[in-house]
Specification:
This protein has 306 residues and is of the alpha+beta class. The protein contains 10 helices and 12 strands. The chain is 35% helix and 28% strand. The structure holds cytidine-5'-monophosphate. Catalyzes the phosphorylation of the position 2 hydroxy group of 4-diphosphocytidyl-2C-methyl-D-erythritol.
Protein backbone atom coordinates (compact mmCIF):
# COMPACT_ATOMS: atom_id res chain seq x y z
CA UNK A 1 0.00 0.00 0.00
CA UNK A 2 1.75 3.17 -1.15
CA UNK A 3 0.25 6.60 -0.60
CA UNK A 4 1.52 9.82 -2.14
CA UNK A 5 0.94 12.99 -0.15
CA UNK A 6 1.63 16.66 -0.97
CA UNK A 7 3.38 19.50 0.82
CA UNK A 8 1.43 22.67 1.58
CA UNK A 9 2.06 26.36 1.43
CA UNK A 10 -0.11 28.80 3.39
CA UNK A 11 -1.56 31.44 1.09
CA UNK A 12 -2.84 33.33 4.13
CA UNK A 13 -1.82 32.60 7.69
CA UNK A 14 -3.69 34.92 10.02
CA UNK A 15 -2.63 34.30 13.61
CA UNK A 16 -5.08 35.35 16.32
CA UNK A 17 -4.73 35.35 20.09
CA UNK A 18 -3.02 32.60 22.08
CA UNK A 19 -5.67 30.27 23.52
CA UNK A 20 -5.70 28.61 26.92
CA UNK A 21 -4.73 25.27 25.32
CA UNK A 22 -1.45 26.73 23.98
CA UNK A 23 -2.67 26.99 20.39
CA UNK A 24 -3.55 30.12 18.44
CA UNK A 25 -6.84 30.71 16.69
CA UNK A 26 -6.06 30.88 13.00
CA UNK A 27 -7.35 31.74 9.61
CA UNK A 28 -5.26 29.45 7.49
CA UNK A 29 -5.64 29.21 3.72
CA UNK A 30 -3.89 25.95 2.83
CA UNK A 31 -2.77 25.13 -0.72
CA UNK A 32 -1.40 21.67 -1.62
CA UNK A 33 1.54 21.70 -4.05
CA UNK A 34 3.16 19.01 -6.20
CA UNK A 35 6.05 18.22 -3.91
CA UNK A 36 5.33 14.75 -2.57
CA UNK A 37 6.39 12.31 0.14
CA UNK A 38 5.32 8.69 -0.20
CA UNK A 39 4.53 6.26 2.59
CA UNK A 40 4.46 2.52 1.93
CA UNK A 41 2.67 0.35 4.50
CA UNK A 42 3.28 -3.41 4.58
CA UNK A 43 2.17 -6.07 7.06
CA UNK A 44 4.98 -6.77 9.53
CA UNK A 45 5.53 -8.47 12.87
CA UNK A 46 5.53 -5.18 14.73
CA UNK A 47 5.23 -1.45 14.11
CA UNK A 48 8.39 -0.15 12.49
CA UNK A 49 9.29 3.04 10.65
CA UNK A 50 12.03 3.65 8.12
CA UNK A 51 12.77 7.07 6.68
CA UNK A 52 14.79 7.84 3.58
CA UNK A 53 15.16 10.69 1.10
CA UNK A 54 13.10 10.20 -2.07
CA UNK A 55 15.13 9.43 -5.21
CA UNK A 56 16.67 12.67 -6.56
CA UNK A 57 15.48 14.67 -3.49
CA UNK A 58 18.12 16.37 -1.38
CA UNK A 59 16.31 16.18 1.95
CA UNK A 60 18.18 16.05 5.25
CA UNK A 61 16.26 13.35 7.14
CA UNK A 62 18.43 13.49 10.26
CA UNK A 63 15.78 15.16 12.43
CA UNK A 64 13.00 12.68 11.67
CA UNK A 65 12.30 10.19 14.49
CA UNK A 66 12.05 6.52 13.50
CA UNK A 67 10.57 5.37 16.80
CA UNK A 68 7.05 5.69 18.24
CA UNK A 69 7.39 9.49 18.18
CA UNK A 70 7.16 9.53 14.40
CA UNK A 71 3.79 11.05 13.47
CA UNK A 72 3.19 8.30 10.90
CA UNK A 73 3.68 5.65 13.61
CA UNK A 74 1.22 7.50 15.85
CA UNK A 75 -1.22 7.60 12.92
CA UNK A 76 -0.89 3.84 12.43
CA UNK A 77 -1.60 3.22 16.13
CA UNK A 78 -4.71 5.42 16.08
CA UNK A 79 -6.12 3.68 12.99
CA UNK A 80 -5.40 0.25 14.51
CA UNK A 81 -7.16 1.30 17.73
CA UNK A 82 -10.24 2.48 15.83
CA UNK A 83 -10.41 -0.74 13.79
CA UNK A 84 -9.63 -3.02 16.73
CA UNK A 85 -6.50 -4.57 15.21
CA UNK A 86 -2.84 -4.69 16.28
CA UNK A 87 -0.64 -2.10 14.55
CA UNK A 88 1.62 -4.70 12.94
CA UNK A 89 2.88 -2.63 10.07
CA UNK A 90 6.13 -1.52 8.50
CA UNK A 91 6.02 2.07 7.29
CA UNK A 92 8.60 3.21 4.76
CA UNK A 93 8.64 6.97 4.32
CA UNK A 94 10.35 8.50 1.29
CA UNK A 95 10.77 12.23 1.80
CA UNK A 96 10.92 14.99 -0.79
CA UNK A 97 9.23 17.57 1.47
CA UNK A 98 11.80 19.51 3.53
CA UNK A 99 11.99 18.46 7.21
CA UNK A 100 10.90 21.21 9.66
CA UNK A 101 10.58 23.46 6.62
CA UNK A 102 7.16 25.04 7.12
CA UNK A 103 5.59 22.82 4.43
CA UNK A 104 3.89 20.34 6.80
CA UNK A 105 6.08 17.38 5.83
CA UNK A 106 5.54 15.52 9.11
CA UNK A 107 1.79 16.11 8.92
CA UNK A 108 1.84 14.86 5.33
CA UNK A 109 3.49 11.59 6.41
CA UNK A 110 0.89 11.16 9.16
CA UNK A 111 -1.92 11.73 6.65
CA UNK A 112 -0.39 9.21 4.24
CA UNK A 113 -0.05 6.64 7.04
CA UNK A 114 -3.72 7.16 8.02
CA UNK A 115 -4.85 6.46 4.46
CA UNK A 116 -2.43 3.56 3.90
CA UNK A 117 -3.22 1.79 7.20
CA UNK A 118 -6.97 2.25 6.77
CA UNK A 119 -6.65 0.65 3.34
CA UNK A 120 -4.57 -2.18 4.82
CA UNK A 121 -6.83 -2.98 7.78
CA UNK A 122 -10.31 -1.70 7.01
CA UNK A 123 -13.03 -3.70 5.28
CA UNK A 124 -12.77 -3.07 1.53
CA UNK A 125 -16.49 -3.52 0.86
CA UNK A 126 -17.87 -1.68 3.88
CA UNK A 127 -15.12 0.50 5.31
CA UNK A 128 -15.63 1.60 8.90
CA UNK A 129 -13.49 4.70 8.45
CA UNK A 130 -14.47 7.36 5.92
CA UNK A 131 -12.16 10.08 4.62
CA UNK A 132 -13.87 12.45 7.10
CA UNK A 133 -13.11 10.01 9.94
CA UNK A 134 -9.44 9.95 8.91
CA UNK A 135 -9.36 13.76 8.90
CA UNK A 136 -10.90 13.77 12.37
CA UNK A 137 -8.32 11.26 13.65
CA UNK A 138 -5.64 13.36 11.95
CA UNK A 139 -6.64 16.49 13.90
CA UNK A 140 -5.47 14.74 17.10
CA UNK A 141 -2.02 14.25 15.56
CA UNK A 142 -1.44 17.81 14.39
CA UNK A 143 -3.26 20.91 13.17
CA UNK A 144 -2.11 20.43 9.56
CA UNK A 145 -2.85 16.70 9.23
CA UNK A 146 -6.53 16.96 8.16
CA UNK A 147 -5.55 19.23 5.28
CA UNK A 148 -2.88 16.79 4.06
CA UNK A 149 -5.66 14.17 3.82
CA UNK A 150 -7.99 16.60 2.00
CA UNK A 151 -5.59 18.46 -0.34
CA UNK A 152 -6.58 21.08 -2.91
CA UNK A 153 -7.03 24.56 -1.46
CA UNK A 154 -8.97 25.02 1.77
CA UNK A 155 -9.67 27.52 4.51
CA UNK A 156 -8.85 26.24 7.99
CA UNK A 157 -10.12 27.82 11.20
CA UNK A 158 -9.78 26.93 14.86
CA UNK A 159 -6.25 25.50 15.19
CA UNK A 160 -6.39 25.29 11.39
CA UNK A 161 -7.99 21.85 11.49
CA UNK A 162 -11.62 22.83 10.70
CA UNK A 163 -11.59 22.94 6.92
CA UNK A 164 -13.77 24.28 4.11
CA UNK A 165 -12.62 23.65 0.52
CA UNK A 166 -12.01 26.87 -1.44
CA UNK A 167 -13.05 27.49 -5.03
CA UNK A 168 -10.03 27.80 -7.35
CA UNK A 169 -9.49 28.01 -11.07
CA UNK A 170 -6.50 26.75 -13.05
CA UNK A 171 -3.02 25.98 -11.85
CA UNK A 172 -0.58 28.21 -9.98
CA UNK A 173 3.18 28.00 -10.54
CA UNK A 174 5.47 28.04 -7.52
CA UNK A 175 9.17 28.11 -6.78
CA UNK A 176 10.36 27.10 -3.30
CA UNK A 177 13.68 28.00 -1.72
CA UNK A 178 14.64 25.61 1.06
CA UNK A 179 17.04 26.53 3.85
CA UNK A 180 19.74 24.65 5.64
CA UNK A 181 18.33 23.62 9.03
CA UNK A 182 14.68 23.78 10.07
CA UNK A 183 12.72 26.10 12.36
CA UNK A 184 10.68 24.80 15.28
CA UNK A 185 6.99 25.63 14.83
CA UNK A 186 6.34 26.28 18.57
CA UNK A 187 9.41 28.55 18.68
CA UNK A 188 8.12 30.61 15.74
CA UNK A 189 4.65 30.97 17.30
CA UNK A 190 6.35 31.95 20.57
CA UNK A 191 8.43 34.58 18.79
CA UNK A 192 5.26 35.92 17.12
CA UNK A 193 3.69 36.37 20.61
CA UNK A 194 6.89 37.94 21.94
CA UNK A 195 7.15 40.46 19.06
CA UNK A 196 3.49 41.41 19.51
CA UNK A 197 3.92 41.89 23.27
CA UNK A 198 7.08 43.94 22.71
CA UNK A 199 5.24 46.22 20.27
CA UNK A 200 2.34 46.50 22.75
CA UNK A 201 0.00 45.15 20.07
CA UNK A 202 -2.93 42.90 20.92
CA UNK A 203 -3.35 39.95 18.57
CA UNK A 204 -5.91 40.85 15.90
CA UNK A 205 -8.84 38.55 15.22
CA UNK A 206 -7.99 37.34 11.71
CA UNK A 207 -10.49 37.21 8.84
CA UNK A 208 -10.26 35.57 5.41
CA UNK A 209 -8.86 37.90 2.75
CA UNK A 210 -11.55 38.65 0.14
CA UNK A 211 -8.85 39.64 -2.37
CA UNK A 212 -7.23 36.25 -1.94
CA UNK A 213 -10.47 34.29 -2.38
CA UNK A 214 -11.37 36.28 -5.51
CA UNK A 215 -7.91 35.75 -7.02
CA UNK A 216 -8.18 32.00 -6.35
CA UNK A 217 -11.69 31.72 -7.80
CA UNK A 218 -10.75 33.59 -10.99
CA UNK A 219 -7.31 32.00 -11.45
CA UNK A 220 -5.69 35.45 -11.19
CA UNK A 221 -2.02 34.73 -10.40
CA UNK A 222 -1.05 38.41 -10.07
CA UNK A 223 -3.97 39.03 -7.71
CA UNK A 224 -2.98 35.97 -5.69
CA UNK A 225 0.63 37.14 -5.52
CA UNK A 226 -0.48 40.52 -4.18
CA UNK A 227 -2.83 38.96 -1.60
CA UNK A 228 -0.40 36.42 -0.06
CA UNK A 229 0.17 37.04 3.66
CA UNK A 230 1.72 35.30 6.63
CA UNK A 231 1.49 36.65 10.19
CA UNK A 232 4.33 34.30 11.21
CA UNK A 233 6.73 35.86 8.72
CA UNK A 234 8.11 38.60 11.03
CA UNK A 235 8.78 35.92 13.67
CA UNK A 236 10.49 33.59 11.18
CA UNK A 237 12.63 36.51 9.92
CA UNK A 238 13.47 37.49 13.48
CA UNK A 239 14.71 33.96 14.26
CA UNK A 240 16.40 33.51 10.85
CA UNK A 241 17.40 36.98 9.54
CA UNK A 242 19.06 35.52 6.42
CA UNK A 243 15.59 34.73 5.02
CA UNK A 244 15.10 38.42 4.30
CA UNK A 245 17.78 38.16 1.60
CA UNK A 246 16.04 35.15 0.07
CA UNK A 247 12.64 36.90 -0.04
CA UNK A 248 14.16 40.09 -1.48
CA UNK A 249 16.08 38.13 -4.12
CA UNK A 250 12.89 36.38 -5.27
CA UNK A 251 11.07 39.71 -5.58
CA UNK A 252 14.00 41.32 -7.43
CA UNK A 253 14.14 38.37 -9.80
CA UNK A 254 10.51 38.78 -10.84
CA UNK A 255 8.33 36.76 -8.45
CA UNK A 256 4.78 38.13 -8.43
CA UNK A 257 4.40 37.01 -4.80
CA UNK A 258 6.92 36.09 -2.12
CA UNK A 259 6.54 34.89 1.45
CA UNK A 260 7.82 32.56 4.11
CA UNK A 261 5.92 29.26 3.96
CA UNK A 262 4.07 28.64 7.24
CA UNK A 263 6.53 28.81 10.13
CA UNK A 264 9.47 28.67 7.68
CA UNK A 265 12.28 28.56 6.85
CA UNK A 266 11.22 27.54 3.31
CA UNK A 267 10.35 30.60 1.20
CA UNK A 268 7.64 30.44 -1.47
CA UNK A 269 7.56 32.45 -4.70
CA UNK A 270 4.71 32.70 -7.16
CA UNK A 271 5.26 33.04 -10.94
CA UNK A 272 2.67 33.93 -13.54
CA UNK A 273 3.37 31.07 -15.98
CA UNK A 274 5.28 27.77 -16.04
CA UNK A 275 7.93 29.46 -18.18
CA UNK A 276 8.31 32.33 -15.69
CA UNK A 277 8.65 29.78 -12.89
CA UNK A 278 11.47 28.06 -14.81
CA UNK A 279 13.26 31.38 -15.30
CA UNK A 280 12.77 32.38 -11.67
CA UNK A 281 14.01 29.00 -10.41
CA UNK A 282 17.16 29.25 -12.55
CA UNK A 283 17.82 32.84 -11.43
CA UNK A 284 17.27 32.01 -7.75
CA UNK A 285 19.58 29.02 -8.07
CA UNK A 286 22.25 31.31 -9.48
CA UNK A 287 21.75 33.90 -6.73
CA UNK A 288 22.90 31.40 -4.10
CA UNK A 289 20.32 32.50 -1.52
CA UNK A 290 18.91 29.05 -0.76
CA UNK A 291 19.99 25.53 -0.03
CA UNK A 292 17.87 24.13 -2.83
CA UNK A 293 15.38 25.50 -5.36
CA UNK A 294 12.32 23.34 -6.09
CA UNK A 295 9.46 23.99 -8.53
CA UNK A 296 5.90 22.84 -7.93
CA UNK A 297 2.34 23.57 -8.99
CA UNK A 298 -0.88 23.75 -7.04
CA UNK A 299 -3.50 22.87 -6.17
CA UNK A 300 -3.06 19.06 -6.13
CA UNK A 301 -5.11 16.34 -4.37
CA UNK A 302 -4.41 15.21 -0.80
CA UNK A 303 -3.10 11.81 0.32
CA UNK A 304 -3.80 9.39 -2.57
CA UNK A 305 -3.22 5.67 -3.00
CA UNK A 306 -0.87 5.02 -5.93
O1 LIG B 1 -0.71 21.10 15.84
P1 LIG B 1 0.78 20.98 15.71
O2 LIG B 1 1.35 19.89 16.57
O3 LIG B 1 1.26 20.89 14.29
O4 LIG B 1 1.35 22.34 16.26
C1 LIG B 1 2.69 22.50 16.57
C2 LIG B 1 2.86 23.70 17.48
O5 LIG B 1 2.56 24.89 16.75
C3 LIG B 1 1.93 23.73 18.68
O6 LIG B 1 2.48 23.03 19.74
C4 LIG B 1 1.85 25.23 18.97
O7 LIG B 1 3.00 25.67 19.65
C5 LIG B 1 1.92 25.83 17.57
N1 LIG B 1 0.57 26.11 17.03
C6 LIG B 1 -0.16 27.16 17.55
N2 LIG B 1 -1.40 27.43 17.05
C7 LIG B 1 -1.92 26.68 16.05
C8 LIG B 1 -1.19 25.59 15.51
C9 LIG B 1 0.05 25.34 16.03
O8 LIG B 1 0.30 27.87 18.44
N3 LIG B 1 -3.12 26.97 15.58
Amino acid sequence: MTVRVPAKVNLQLGVGPLRDDGYHDLVNVFHAVSLFDTVTAEPARELEVRVQAAPHARVAIGGVPTDGDNLAAKAARLVAERLGVDPRVSLRIRKAIPVAGGMAGGSADAAAALVACARLWDDRERPLLSRDDLMEIGADLGSDVPFAVLGGTAVGVGRGERLTPALTRGTFHWVFATADGGLSTPAVYGECDRLRAEAGRAAPWPGVSEELMTALATGDAKGLGAALSNDLQPAALSLRPSLRRTIDAGRDLGAIGALVSGSGPTCAFLAETAEDAGDLAAALDGAGVAEQIVRATGPVPGATLV
